[in-house]
Description:
This protein is mainly α and 291 residues long. It is built from eleven helices and four strands; from the N terminus they run ααααβββααααβααα. Strands 1-4 form a two-stranded antiparallel sheet. Strands 2-3 form a two-stranded antiparallel ribbon. A hairpin with a 2-residue loop joins strand 2 and strand 3.
Amino acid sequence: xxxxxxxxxxxxxxxxxxxxxxxxxxxxxxxxxxxxxxxxxxxxxxxxxxxxxxxxxxxxxxxxxxxxxxxxxxxxxxxxxxxxxxxxxxxxxxxxxxxxxxxxxxxxxxxxxxxxxxxxxxxxxxxxxxxxxxxxxxxxxxxxxxxxxxxxxxxxxxxxxxxxxxxxxxxxxxxxxxxxxxxxxxxxxxxxxxxxxxxxxxxxxxxxxxxxxxxxxxxxxxxxxxxxxxxxxxxxxxxxxxxxxxxxxxxxxxxxxxxxxxxxxxxxxxxxxxxxxxxxxxxxxxxxxxx
Length: 291
């Protein structure tokens, strides 16, 4: 029974990682950039919900909606100000910029909200469900359902809408897409917006499951979600889903059966092994460089 409980907890955590990883994988798949400030966008979204609920007394659903809007706009601003000028820059320049944006967001949160740990109130109204000795929390049910729905909607959006087709065209060849009349700048900005909106949802679920909030709340989940995206095959939406679920299960089982101190190391060790065996990840496709 304990194993099943751990497995359920792993799927719950993995679903949150998967939602975050979807943001990473969309941005990389279309803009060929890694937004390492993504984890801090999660943190900003959580603080918006915390402020709306605790400081202003707003309804949880209204608070989450406002967080999604704020993070969506923030993602577009970050893309416009920090990443757009670096589209033809070296990967090192992009990495340094991303780290700078990350530290900027963390320090803004420190100045505005302080370094004290805040107690986050869950936004999930669904009660826990008990089946024998197994208890499934409301957060787990919502996280898994949200992850599946978001993945399905994203795949339909990309395959069935004009904006989604534009994303596919830009991911294949920006210059050719522009010659065909695709608004490359708008498409990339939309990608950042969607990814950042998803980050807000994931952050709220994360803080509902683990109810503490600091300016550094999004850092480690952001890194692990990036690991999940690479694990599943960065650039692949189903890969982000699979990578996130597997990563969550590996982390929880490692904490339960091996060592809570070594769990993170085990997660990254598994990633290294997978990449040594299959460098593109589980569902990733090799990228052929143009000469």
